[in-house]
Amino acid sequence: MLPDYSVIAWLLIVFSVYLTGVSKGGFAGGFGTLSVPLMALAISPTQAAGLLLPLLLVMDVFAVKAWWGKQSNAEVWRFVPGLFIGVAVGTVLFGSLSEQGVRLALGILSVVFAAYMLLKPVAKKPISSRWALPAASVCGFTSFIAHAGAPPMNMYLMPRKLSKETFIATCTITYAVVNTIKLGPYVWLGEVNMTSAWASLLLVPVAWIGVRNGLWLQSRVNEKLFYRLVILAMFLVGINLVWQAL
Questions:
Q1: How many Å apart are CA 48 and CA 52, to the nearest integer?
Q2: What's the N-to-C CA distance of the chain in angstroms?
Q3: pTM value surpassing 0.85
Q4: 1 falls within a domain
Q5: N or C: which end of the chain has fewer CB within 10 A?
Q6: Domain count of the chain?
Q7: What is the DSSP code string of 137-157?
Q8: What is the per-residue pLDDT for 68?
Q9: CB–CB of 198/69 below 8 Å?
Q10: Which residue from 20, 17, 26, 18 is spatially nearest to 217, judged by alpha carbons?
Q11: CA–CA dist 183, 69 (Å, integer)
Q12: Nearest to residue 32, comparing CAs of 48, 56, 8, 11?
């Protein structure tokens, strides 16, 4: 049985899944951070997260296949311990997080990430790899809460001065790892259930189209303009979520 969502909710869900696919295919997953906040405008943030996880795993298969071999294995392995820590903390705290609290956290995260992307300083030299563990731990936690692992990952990887392809591939593999780690806790906590699974299955074609379009777009689109539009959208959605929570 499919969830009884409104037409507006389904439109937001379809658009969010497509945007996540485009992001996974060619833009290091960063734009996918917008998906749960967008869906949370119409449905519960926990419902949104549960519906999206199986689709993320499907997208990961397509994206990893496209980018495999171009990643920095050293950076991926540096992230793995922290990802487990972050997911574990998210699992333990899950029952204590209210829906309004999740909305507020999502809103603040969206606004902070937008501000960071607009104001980030240009690093003169790569930051130390010692920052990988704390960055990965925060990544695992925010990814567990709302599939929003991109901000902490980008804050660490961007100053590492990787090439564009290496950066995208490294993010892609790392997202696949953390999403796989999350699956067990999501099922155990009931976030992924039969109802959400049916909705996820229905949206697989949208996810596939999004990934394919992302792979096609990443070498053709004006990235600077695209980033600015998504950052603006994330800022506005974040403000809306904070307003709803308060």
A1: 6
A2: 33
A3: no
A4: no
A5: N
A6: 1
A7: HHHHHHHHHHS--HHHHHHHH
A8: 93
A9: no
A10: 26
A11: 25
A12: 56
Asked if residue 71 belongs to a domain, the reply is: yes
* Residue 220: other Cβ atoms inside 10 A: 8
How far is 37 from 241, CA to CA, in rounded Å?
Answer: 7
Token pair for residue 182? Answer: 């999350």
Tokens representing 213 are: 């379009």
Residues 132-188: pLDDT tens digits? 999 999 889 888 887 877 777 877 887 777 777 888 889 889 999 999 999 999 999
| Sequence-distant (≥ 6) Cβ neighbours of residue 160 within 8 angstroms | 75, 126, 127, 129
With CA atoms as reference, report the closest residue to 50 among 181, 166, 172, 200.
Answer: 200
Candidates 163, 159, 110; CA nearest to 135 is: 159
Classify each residue of 140-169 as buried b or exposed e, where b means 16 or more C-beta atoms within 10 Å of its C-beta: bbbbbbbbbbbbbbbbbbbbbebeeebbbb
Residue pair 111/242 in contact by the 8 Å Cβ criterion: yes
Of 11, 31, 23, nearest to 62 (Cα)?
Answer: 23
Both tokens assigned to 84: 């487990």
- Say if 199 falls within a structural domain: yes
What is the torsional sign of CA 66, 67, 70, 76? negative
Does 136 reside within a domain?
yes
Domain span at residue 171? 7-244
Give the dihedral of Cα atoms 192, 181, 150, 229; nearest 10 deg. -30
